[in-house]
Amino acid sequence: xxxxxxxxxxxxxxxxxxTAGLGGGLGTGAVRAxxxxxxxxxxxxxxxxxxxxxxxxxxxxxxxxxxxxxxTADYQRSDQLxxxxxxxxxxxxxxxxxxxxxxxxxxxxxxxxxxxxxxEAVEYHGxxxxxxxxxxxxxxxxxxxxxxxxxxxxxxxxxxxxxxGVLLRLRGEMAASETYDLGRYGEITVAAGGRLFQPxxxxxxxxxxxNEARRLLVDDASNVQNPDTIPYTSDGRVVRLGDVTxxxxxxxxxxxxxxxxxxxxxxxxxxxxPRPDAPEPVGGDVRVASxxxxxxxxxxxxxxxxxxxxxxxxxxxxxxxxxxxxxxxxGLMEVENDGGTALRVLVDALNEAVGADxxxxxxxxxxxxxxxxxxxxxxxTAVTPVGAPRSARDEVFxxxxxxxAFRPAAGGGESFTAIVNHFKSKGCGGASGPDAxxxxxxxxxxxxxxxxxxxxxxxxxxxxxxxxxxDLNAYTSEDPVEVLEDAGLVGQTPRFVDDExxxxxxxxxxxxxxxxxxxxxxxxxxxTGATIWHxxxxxxxxxxxxxxxxxAEFYKPDAFRSSDHDPVxxxxxxx
Length: 575
Known about the structure:
By secondary structure, the protein is of the alpha+beta class. The protein has twelve helices and 27 strands.
């Protein structure tokens, strides 16, 4: 049977008296015990587990309580959480209740201090805490709380609520799965068992519930935006998705709709996913790539760069990526629809970088009215356009496709017809009726994308050796891709890319393939290889060309984080 609150407080006083009587000078705990013996005599009236309760909200919310425990984590600075965590060293026998709690107070405490805290029990955006606090009485130093060893996913359908406010150690390797807000808020998402994949991308064990059970957000114990020091960037190395850490230790908190671990020991990530300096070899005598440029605009302060300096930085990164791809034909997405200026500037810069007039562009005959368009860049020493570029005036397209036939430049060989696309996005702005989110994991405007895929299938059927490529805004097992496959087109990355590497985009911590290469049956037999060059989706966004919020020391005019999509590359044997 657990001792009463009064009995435990008496034990605290006895321990404090012993600590205060030690010879050879007083430690911090002894000094504090001597300062407030009277206050320490006022026992706790509520156990922390009673404040937490068995559900998501405190059963005593709004009540003034006095709790007792050991300080496990101290985040009191003005640039931190302005409080500390306290945990009961003698937990109750109910596994549904937590024995830790956050105290919103800047009263000076140290880890291992034994404290009695008086304050109001409240729910602050889902976190049970004490605030405001009227008294924090330090009553000596207790034995350090040992972290609870936890492995994700939790067993038997348990939730993290039972560990709110508790010091934890995560067992096993945890892989970085999302770094989108690392530079902005100091947050990183990790996952047990490796990378998390989109449930609709055709990967094994990627159901939504299973993903949620394996993931955990790791915070920096601060609500400060744009921290001066970005976590996990020491020694000139930046964490990449797929890098792993072991022994993650910290207190589990909650905020902004997510459980989040506030580390008490700085995590170290091992490089399990090295940067690829070049794409994997794909063979063939003609190489074709697909690349979303992330709003390459020469017009400032629109969808791309806001300043001339940002535009130059973006251009340098795009050129580095295109040069590294070394493809003979590149289908581009998200190029400014400005009559050709942005595309010309990009090709001119690419030619300057390679030191020759190698690359030319294919202008769109009917680019539509969207701010962005698709386009082709090709190596005139490797391929020659056959006939005029074509498009479609079907009203289903927000951004009309672009079709262009090519043949090897050096005599002989089969021609092929590349059709570059950028289907309607999954965003829900203005979506209604069949375009609204149907709850099947495919997002909004799936019906529109299906109609776009149907129109592209018709276009491909009338083309010689069709190759459908681009950002389809649909994952591999979603309806639009299946429409194209049902029309006889063959996806190339599933043929050549290992399942764990088959992704080109990361959204909300889930990796998936939005960028595709699908070839007609005859052309598919001539494909010698395919790869996805992971230079963008695995990299934190503070490495991109933007100057706002991005520390200057991280920018490099290289291919990494030149976009938010990874380029896809295939080889063709056309001779």
